[in-house]
Please model this.
Amino acid sequence: MTKKTKRGVAVVGAGMSKFGAFPDKTSRDLFVEAYQEMKSTVDKGLDPSQIEAFYMGNFSADQFEKQAHLAPIIASWVGLAGIPALRLEDACASGSVALRQASLAIASGLYDVVLVGGVEKMTDLPIGEVTDALASAADTQFEIPAGFTFPGFYAAMATAYLDEYDASPQAFAHVSIKNHKNGALNEKAQFNQTIADIMESKKKRAAAKGYPVPTWSNELEFFADPAGNPNIAWPMTLFDCSPVSDGAAAVLLVAEELAYQFTDTPLYIIGSGQASDGALTERDTLSGIPSAAKAARQAYDMAGLTSDDIDLAEVHDCFTIAEIMASEDLGFFPRGEGWKAAMAGMTARDGVHPINTSGGLKAKGHPVGASGIAQVIEVWKQLRGVAGERQIAGNPRIALTHNVGGTGQTCVVHIFERRD
Amino acid sequence: MTTYTPESKQFFTALQDGKLIGSACIDCGHVMIPQRVICTRCHSDNTEIVEFAGEGVLSAFTIINVPPTSMAESGFSTKNPYCTGIVTLTEGPRISGQILNVDVANPQTIKIGSLVKMTTIERERNGEKKIFLAFEVI
Model:
């Protein structure tokens, strides 16, 4: 049965910090940046004393910064001490989980104006400890002792996908190249460089140091060269993986009937879905993410839409294989066709189903708790026609976000609409 | 046979004895690994511990070139990578484990669908030697 909420919810402000590695900044500094930008985007102005609650997605400040109980600290840092402040954790889906719970709280009638944020500060730890912290999003008793890492889980799904559909691993390179192309046009992206730019700077660096200059003549050659692009967990290479990142993002949610007090161009949340699952080994398939298909179905049903109605999607490309599986789980392409669509450019900014116009997690960066909210920032820009050079054509009106926790133990899907 | 109980740590106790255990639902027949009290298919708590033959096929795998600290402790590194994967047991359910008897330098030679047999492997973890589940390609 299709379930709908009884009160509509709108996004009326959206901002983010720059994503990257910032040794001099902590979670709170990054969130202040995001909050200030969010505030500046509220067209008719925001009086912060109107904010009634703060919902924050954060995966593991306790591991990354040795700081638990982060939400009240951040609330205080943006001048909002006193209001309910809570942290929600479902691994990399934490941001979207916070968005969903905040919108349900408004839909319930309890609140009218809520701040939703996401933040992660990951780069303080040495890389081995970051890998271990991320691995704690999987089943540490039964999956991690097998020697799995997160790149490893997705790499295993990649081998299952390649085998099941007789797919070309070159499709993975196409996803990465496309997302870097988009990220190069996003000033907030951790890598605002195309793969071609990265190749060029590697060649220059080699020449400057007197090393042999690599002879890659195109991006695919670079991608296939382990000297430039080493394996992390075969068949996933360095450039198949999203980076370790610091960053924060914030949106302002209000009850639908109040939206015009804040802006003439609100975005309405018209669909929301969330599903969970057991460990990767407990699923019927290894070449797709069942919780994503479930969450998408709930969101499409609530919105009364199908995948054909979506003008653009921000999907959880923590690894390139994840974007290909998402393009199928969300119904943009039939099972086993996502890899061909990626290779044919169908998910590029001018493709039939533009995916990750922001650069995605791959190029924009993946501060895990912030990623779900940062997806909303891109949707906000694209649907309001202010995405600058990376703006897609055709006056997009409807967009989808897809945020996965772990290997799909959680997935959250939201659908947003601009009404004229 | 030693009697094992459904507490999750018992899985490793059984592994020490060279046994791979899980649960079967007496009501609907669903078979699960590791063992649990409540059936994941029909919600019944009428389940019993079963022992698997330890045979199956390789369903997914990866070569880990950048290991987690626990595996680095056992000597694995970018220069000494290992294979880990997901095995579908003959009895139906899937479990993950390190995959042995494969050419990690040539992952293209490793085939999904290969027959595998359970074994155990001793690795260092937090300075202690421990027994872990592994599968050998046969």
Notes: Chain B touches chain A at residues 8, 11, 33-34, 40, 59-72, 76, 78, 81-82, 84-86, 93-98, 107, 112-113, 125, 132-133 (CB under 8 Å).
